[in-house]
Amino acid sequence: MRGVGLFVFAALASGAFATQLTLTMVADDFFEAYVSTDDSVQGTLFNKQTGTWQAGAQTGSITLTPGVTNYLHIQARDVFGAPSMILGQATLSDGGFLFGNGTDTLLTNGADWKVSLTGFGSNYQPVVDLGKHGTMVWGSFSGISSDARHIWSNQTAGEQYFSIPIRSVVPEPATMAVLAAGVAGLVRRRKKA
Description:
It is a single chain. The protein is an alpha+beta fold. It folds into two domains: 1-16 and 171-193, no CATH class; 18-169, no CATH class. The protein contains two helices and 13 strands; from the N terminus they run αβββββββββββββα. The strands form three sheets. Strands 2, 3, 5, 7, 9, 10 and 13 form a seven-stranded antiparallel beta sheet that branches. A four-stranded antiparallel beta sheet has the order 4-1-6-8, with no helix packed on it. The chain starts with a helix and ends with a helix.
């Protein structure tokens, strides 16, 4: 019985997954991708495009903070004028988190993303869907699903701040410790009976 209790404890403790977020994205003209645990804070940089869209899509990964909601933040800039857009695909490495759409894969689209013209965490508005991947002037990019959509805001030039929540589905470490202690207590109680 002791082995079962240790197994359950180890299983609960392993709930602190090291979930990796991977983002493949391209922008017209530039972007930086961040992850934060606060929607109003820019966060940690993990991917960026330093050349224009002709250089291709950029891929980057980062480990999410376990037990709390994380936010994928994209700061995009249009410098050279229309067309202005981002296009991308994000994936999660395991079931420890889900995107705001309830899945472990997120494409740029008009339904799930929100955009602000003033900064992260405020004045969000729906994005503008500019068309399906492969239908705009860019053509197609490898590493991005053909179902992804080109998105932006109603304003063509300047800074754009895109955000999407990534929610933890694994209890925070303190909750797991309480659960493990409860399981250990039940195992001891059963042994005495």
